[in-house]
Predict the 3D structure of the following.
Amino acid sequence: MMISVIIPLYKGKKYIKKIIDMSAAWKTAGVELEIIFVNDYPEEALYDEDYENHSAALIQIHNNECNVGIHESRIIGCSIAKGNYIVFLDQDDTLMQDYMNLQLNNIGDREAVICNGYWREGELIFSQSNQLKGNYNFERYLNEGYPLVSLGQLMIKRQAIPNEWLTNPLKHNGCDDLYLWVLMMLYGVKVSVNNVPVYIHEEDGSNSSLNYKEMSLSIQDVRDRILKLKFMDEKSRVALDKKMLEKISKYDMYEKLNRIIEITQRQDVEKRLLEKEIKKIAIYGVGLYGKWLLNILKDSNINIEYAIDSRADVKDIGIPVIQPEKTGGSVDAIIVTPVFDYGSIRNKIKEKYSCRIMSIEEIL
């Protein structure tokens, strides 16, 4: 049995040694390991002979003749791979020592397995408030969305990778993982779960998932391709189209918000709040925008008393974090950071609090 780990590189030479060093701990009895680096930065050619003697795994490096993007690079890696199982890893991510062993042990008679892990400053991806459920299918995707942070959580049997994903590379980076998952669900690929956190996803600012304009274009690409599939019934097509359009609208909104945030200073936010006689606040939503607000108001004249988040059990931000079902102390205002869902969140907050409720947009 062989496992192929496929890693697209972009200006990624500095990551190769780290990955090879990690791979020494992945050894599993009766399993061969193959690591395929697909270099998508043609200006810097890499050669496998420079690394193959430093690892127990088989090392292969393919240099793309031109930059083709992460999805096509993954496809190229699949065309080279000899493994029965495939793992798609980002260049700056980490697989822990027991990753291979536990993924194989948990896949059972299924065609794929997804694991738990960490992201965003060490937050646990799946926890009591966001459980790794299993029994994934297309209907669950429509209701609950894409469950993974990144493809590194997935180990899949090579023959279970849908042909459409292998033959139609996306033009824009960002959503090839979603594209793969939706196709898997449409084809009924059976997915097992591994609750042990054996994966770490890094977000260093260069990830395409943080480039909302590119993500919007990428998901439009996914939408256009999947809606052309002949075997989808009309009900599924309408439901999928609605879900994809909502996601595109979210990314477009995030792109506009980011442009404003980039030129916003602490004194701007502080001034706007103080002008409204707001000195004590709570933050609703401790994602990227919630953490940005927490950071920008640090050492200001605005006191952040607590935060409210449905995933309070994994939010370690230096102040109390409570579940939305609970009620916090008295504040002058609650700032809601999930801008796309502001209306529905505001209505729920009004049932518990009498203070002012504002969207993050109102203070930018």
